[in-house]
Amino acid sequence: MSTIDTNFQQTGESIRLLARSGKFHTPTITSAPGFVQANLIVLPSRLAPDFRQFCARNSVPCPLLAETPIGIFDRLKSHIPGLTGQQIAGDLDLRSDFPRYMIYDNGRLTKSHVANIEREWTGDHVGFLIGCSFSFDAALTKAGLPPAHTLWGRNVPMYRTRVPLCPAGVFKNSTYIVSMRPYRRKDIEKVRDITRPYLITHGEPIDWGWDAVERLGISNIATPEYGDAPVAPDGTELVQGFGEGDETLEPVFFGCGVTPQEAIQRAGLEGRVFAHAPGHMIVLDIKDSDITRDN
Amino acid sequence: MSTIDTNFQQTGESIRLLARSGKFHTPTITSAPGFVQANLIVLPSRLAPDFRQFCARNSVPCPLLAETPIGIFDRLKSHIPGLTGQQIAGDLDLRSDFPRYMIYDNGRLTKSHVANIEREWTGDHVGFLIGCSFSFDAALTKAGLPPAHTLWGRNVPMYRTRVPLCPAGVFKNSTYIVSMRPYRRKDIEKVRDITRPYLITHGEPIDWGWDAVERLGISNIATPEYGDAPVAPDGTELVQGFGEGDETLEPVFFGCGVTPQEAIQRAGLEGRVFAHAPGHMIVLDIKDSDITRDN
């Protein structure tokens, strides 16, 4: 009997079922490679129209993949042309299929990294799934450009920026959150080309280079607001001055689905809101090839 | 015989035909109220995929309404769900239906405010129509909140900002251009509500208040980069300190379809690109009610 590569057998559904049963509670960085992952926002129904508009106006950080009918946690309405909610994720429970959750009350984080939100979900909540940049990490790896954090079993570093989002109704005073992957200067155009078709999972980088740290208003590259501290591809601390000329290692910044969690805090929304714990995503039934789009 | 209000009889088509025959060459601020107006970008076909992506990633300043097949100037392919190109504008000639045009060579403005681009258009050009904020000026006026510039027959003031756009292929290093309409502080939420449904013509403001001038990186409110200098509703110069408390007159900034013209210059594109002269729009056959969208 041949040996079984359990990692190879992972599917979106298998990860969801493990999370649902409480057996999976870590970041999903390398889970079920090639399957699309997603961020979560769950809102009281009266806030849903403004949030939908907020996503439409800020589609790079907040690409809306699907939402639930009011109060429903096991069925999706698709926002991806050509795909149904059932195709995006069939066997589904948004209350427990993420490895970890965050709970916000009146815009403030009140519970962090809880296992599920089964008791908290009410008949008035609407769930939204938002694209995640993990979706193109497999494509980068396949092209010989694995993101440094994936080589060392770390969560991706995520930073608060000063770049404003377009307001929509109650969602105002928000700024981009970005994820970061370091690359050599000579590889950055290739990274842009590979990630460009992933339009609904943040797409190509929004900025790059050491100059971008100041341009985006990131306070300290060594201390991200979410995720793990950044490392170079060799596992050492990421610092400026590694390599020369085209070999210079530079930070590359992407839109990040943690952005709406910040937006919820900035808006100081009344009521109870749920989200996933950053890096702890839901894994869907669709694959990267289902969502990439050439123009 | 009753008198005829010629202004009332204006339609999108009548303005297009006047422009086409060389009889109309002014800004279209108050032309055919209620009919949707649009900005123009015409690119060599090899740049079209990147531009389409650029619009998708920056849909507030660059909402893509329609484009032409390669080399075609009299037929549109619609990007508005539920509307055909023929419905958007039937009798059409993108080479002459705008009152005035700009010509860029290799990313530099080489001709300004020309009457038409009939001789310049080639079999390789693709035309793009982008939403225009003039579309909601009629709705604001109807609600008793006429934009100040419309009261005094002036072009809307437009400003360069430091707020970065999301890059897409060759389109990088760009920032938002914004149009500005001053309103009393107490009316700003009403202005946001009225403009919010106009998602594909820039929608609600991106920022507001005197603090926003610095936040957006606008160098001087008195000297816009495009259009006319701003005026208060009473026709006097717009300055800080007009009114008190809720009556304070404040600048309100909207996404602006001149943004892609700046993007073309920033990208330093090789080849010949055409655009409309800022404020000198094409007027379409569709009306505002055809494009507003409630969430």
UniProtKB/TrEMBL annotation, chains A, B:
Q: Which GO terms describe its biological process?
A: glutamate metabolic process
GO MF assignments: D-glutamate cyclase activity
InterPro entries for this protein: D-Glu_cyclase, Putative_hydro-lyase
For this protein, the record's Gene3D superfamilies field holds:
PSTPO5379-like, PSTPO5379-like domain
What keyword terms does UniProt attach to this protein?
A: Lyase
What does the similarity note say?
Answer: Belongs to the D-glutamate cyclase family.
Under what name is this protein listed?
Answer: DUF1445 domain-containing protein
**What organism is this sequence from?**
Exophiala bonariae
